[in-house]
Q: What sequence folds into this?
């Protein structure tokens, strides 16, 4: 059976799925927006795991477009998959870099055995990408990915606000 792809308006920290994707900054040490909300809801164990990643595997931080998994602390999810979106305000406007966030996150989800995954609108907040462009790239990338695998059952875009939800719903229709 093909994977379900859906869009909902809501709070990604409340998703009871195998994995939620964090729109992280390269430091992995928390920030604002989705990143801050996930760190706050997950509790101190998430920050501790991120610090361990920085001390061992990622001393220079997580590169843009790549992804890495940690436990999820106090969240209902089992894993948090961190990815760093491109920052349009700093000239990172290549759609393939944005697409890599989604495909790399799904690669990591598959590696850890997550069959259900929630994504935010990566780079649509403070990183300055137009939410309609993010929706187009995200939906296309996820569709192509799940059509090539039977290891993902559900991808849910969990969006903050009606405008973002409408942009994703339009791409999914």
A:
């Amino acid at each position: 059976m093909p994977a379900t792809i859906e869009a909902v308006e809501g709070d990604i920290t409340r998703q009871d799925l195998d994995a939620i994707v964090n729109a992280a900054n390269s430091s992995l040490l928390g920030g604002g927006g989705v990143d801050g909300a996930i760190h706050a809801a997950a509790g101190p164990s998430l920050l501790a795991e991120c610090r361990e990643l920085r001390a061992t595997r990622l001393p220079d931080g997580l590169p843009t477009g790549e992804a890495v998994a940690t436990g999820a602390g106090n969240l209902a999810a089992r894993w948090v998959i961190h990815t760093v979106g491109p920052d349009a305000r700093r000239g990172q406007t290549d759609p393939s870099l944005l697409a890599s966030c989604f495909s790399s996150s799904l690669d990591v989800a598959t590696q850890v055995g997550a069959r259900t995954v929630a994504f935010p609108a990566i780079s649509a907040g403070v990183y300055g990408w137009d939410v309609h462009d993010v929706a187009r790239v995200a939906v296309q990338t996820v569709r192509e990915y799940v059509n090539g695998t039977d290891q993902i059952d559900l991808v849910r875009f969990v969006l903050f606000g009606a405008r973002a939800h409408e942009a994703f719903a339009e791409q999914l229709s």
Notes: Residues 4-172 form a domain with the Leucine Aminopeptidase, subunit E; domain 1 fold (CATH 3.40.220.10). DSSP finds five helices and six strands in the chain. The longest helix spans residues 95-112. The chain has one domain: 4-172.
